[in-house]
Amino acid sequence: MRRLGWGERGGIRRLLGGLLVLLSLGGPAQGLAQGDEELFSPYLGKTRGLAELQAQAAEALARLQTLAPADPTYRAETVRTGVLLVKSGRHADAVALLEPSRPLAQFTLLHALGVAYLRTHRNQDAYDTLLRAHQLQPTVAGPLLPAALACARMPRTCDDSRLLVQEYLALGGRFTRLADRIRYHVPYRLRK
Question: If residue 106 lies in a helix (H) or strand (E), which one and from where to where?
Fold first, then answer.
């Protein structure tokens, strides 16, 4: 029986590390988003524990800086840190952190990035990213309300906000008052 050389062992370690990353993407980062179900909160300024969330985000950023990008847990920690940045109101930092990973098909990452885009008034990016997140998990209401708000902010190019709100409410979304405000919003359009 042949013994594995160092190069082959390294390849196996990288493979196992990659599997750990895939498992961890569904683990801690996923739990952060689904604990509340919705990362987007219209009441961020009134949230109790905002100082605690900001401290957790700062700790997560410091921890992320100690990891190498080749580390198997780096991607999961990036998503976890991005979620904490969004929840703590540091949206520009969340965009800077998560945007390089935008091509990945990972629900929590896309949900957090879409909310951060919305809060930084990048409405088209928010709309596109949040709809991608919703396509990945169509039974979760979370990405639909911020996508509807982004759509309502772009009345010349998007008219799906009412349909998105109806689907959000049908899936059991929590922020019903804001959903109704978006659903009955009539944008002011200038005609030439």
Answer: none
Q: Containing H/E element for 184?
A: none
Q: pTM (2 decimals)?
A: 0.76
123-182 tens-digit pLDDT: 999 999 999 999 999 999 999 999 999 999 998 888 889 999 999 999 998 889 989 998
Domain count, the chain: 1
Give the separation between CA 126 and CA 18, rounded to whole angstroms: 29
Region for residue 116 given its phi and psi (left: phi exceeds 0; alpha: psi -120 to 50; beta: otherwise): alpha
Give just the sign of the alpha carbon dihedral 125, 131, 133, 136. negative
CATH of the domain at 90: 1.25.40.10
Q: Is residue 79 part of a domain?
A: yes
In a domain? residue 14: no
Q: What would the 3-class secondary structure string for 129-177 be?
A: HHHHHHHHCCCCCCCHHHHHHHHHCCCCCCCCHHHHHHHHHHCCCCCHH
CB atoms within 10 A of CB 84: 23
Structural domain harbouring 76: 48-183
